[in-house]
Automatic annotation (TrEMBL):
This is ABC transporter ATP-binding protein. The keyword Protein transport does not apply. It comes from the Bacteria. One of its GO terms (molecular function) is ATP binding. Keywords: ATP-binding, Nucleotide-binding, Transport. Residues 5-226 form the ABC transporter domain.
Length: 227
């Protein structure tokens, strides 16, 4: 399978702390990769580095074979908006906007007219089990519903890669299971790859592969299904 996103020899230092000490990762088409490891081991730093949010001090990040870690800030942020989708633990939906407009927002930022953006946004509601909730504001949604709207928003631009940092961290076990099931299946069906940080082994088990990170290095790698 083709590699969509790769990191080679990634190093990131914060003063005397080495958050990444030389990490190699590759993410293939429709692949879902869970990143696990103890608190402070470098999981979020790795995710943010692959996503072009943090610039590494050493190594390279390649998206479909092209280096992105040296791009200028404007090109890099345009690339993040177009090619990547993001789901975080909480607080990512704008409280004053209905769900469908939250999902449409990344498309509007790309210049899609509002009406068309909302029409495209609505298509993600049924696959994510959100039918009928298009007009609700985030405050009128349950935690699991809000996370599913956040997933719809990440997928709306039809990104190459969806990045999720503890997407189920604020949910109970049952809701978490439902959300990760939809996150992995709808992302895979959309053709995007998924890179997800989680501390929950049950959540990680929904992914094709798990990377274990320890002290800024890959300490283990397992594959659940044959690619
Ligand atoms: N902006 C920063 N400034 C200084 N140190 C940082 C910064 N971001 C992360 N670090 C340090 O880098 C190391 C890795 O942090 P990171 O956030 O990647 O860990 P993590 O594995 O995501 O942890 P957690 O499970 O707690 O979210 C830690 O020692 C952390 O304190
Ligand atoms: Mg983290």
């Amino acid at each position: 399978m083709n590699t969509v996103l790769a990191g080679y020899g990634l190093v990131k230092k914060y003063g005397s702390t080495t958050a990444l000490a030389g990490v190699d990762v590759d993410v293939r088409e429709r692949d879902s990769l869970a990143i696990m490891g103890p608190s402070g081991s470098g999981k979020s730093t790795l995710l943010h580095t692959l996503a072009g949010i943090i610039r590494p001090d050493g190594g390279q990040v390649l998206l479909r074979g092209e280096r992105i870690d040296k791009l200028g800030e404007n090109r890099l942020s345009a690339l993040r908006r177009k090619r990547f989708g993001f789901v975080f633990q909480f607080g990512q939906l704008l409280p004053e906007l209905p769900a469908e407009e939250n999902v449409a927002l990344p498309l509007m930022l790309e210049g899609t007219p509002r009406k068309e953006a909302v029409a495209r946004a609505r298509r993600w509601f049924a696959p994510l089990g959100l039918d009928g909730l298009e007009g609700r504001r985030p405050g009128q949604l349950s935690g699991g519903q809000a996370q599913r709207v956040a997933i719809a928003r990440a997928l709306a631009v039809e990104p190459d890669v969806v990045f999720a940092d503890e997407p189920t961290g604020a949910l109970d076990q049952r809701t978490s299971d439902e959300v990760v099931r939809l996150l992995t299946s709808v992302t895979r069906a959309s053709g995007a790859a998924l890179v997800m940080v989680t501390h929950d082994a049950d959540v990680a088990a929904h992914c094709d592969r798990v990377l274990q990170v320890r002290d800024g290095r890959i300490s283990g790698h397992s594959q659940f299904t044959v690619a």
